[in-house]
Amino acid sequence: MWVLTAAGIACDFTSGANLNVCQDSIPAPCGAIAHCVMGESDFVQGSFPGSQTLIVRTSVPKIITFQFVFTNREAAGTSLTLTSTEPDCSEQFSYTSQGDLFELAGPDGVLSFPIQMTTAGDHLVQFQSDAYCNYEMRYE
Predict the structure, then answer these.
(1) 21-65: per-residue pLDDT in tens?
(2) Number of domain units in the chain
(3) CB 22: neighbour CB atoms within 10 A?
(4) Looking at residue 112, which CATH number applies to its domain?
C-alpha cells in the first residue's frame, strides 16, 4: 500500500512538468560544471545517495521553493543539503535537513523549503543526500 501511495504522490508531483534529464556539461558560475539549466516547468529525477549540480535562472530577486518527493524508499539517511550560489559567487544560501527525510516529507510525501536568490542571473544549485531512495525535484 505504501509504494502505491508514494507512486501516486510522484505522479501528481510531476503532472504538467517536463522531465529534464540533466546530463549535460555546462560551464556554471564559480568555476563549476552543471548538468542542466532547470526551468520552472521542469523536474529532475535521480537517486540518493548522490548529488546533482544544476543552474536555476532568475530574472528578478526572489525566493524559490524547492520540492522533493522520495520513492523506492530504502533508508532515510541523516540529511539532505541544498546550496544556491549567487551568480557573482558572493553569497551562498543553504538548507540542510536534520533527521529522517521520509518523516520530514510529512503525510503528503513532499519535502519543501525556500531558498533566497538575491540577484537576477544564473544561480548554481547543488544538492546531495545520504538517503537510499529515488527522488524527483522541482521548484516554484
Answers:
(1) 999 999 998 999 999 999 999 999 999 999 999 999 999 999 999
(2) 1
(3) 20
(4) 2.60.120.380
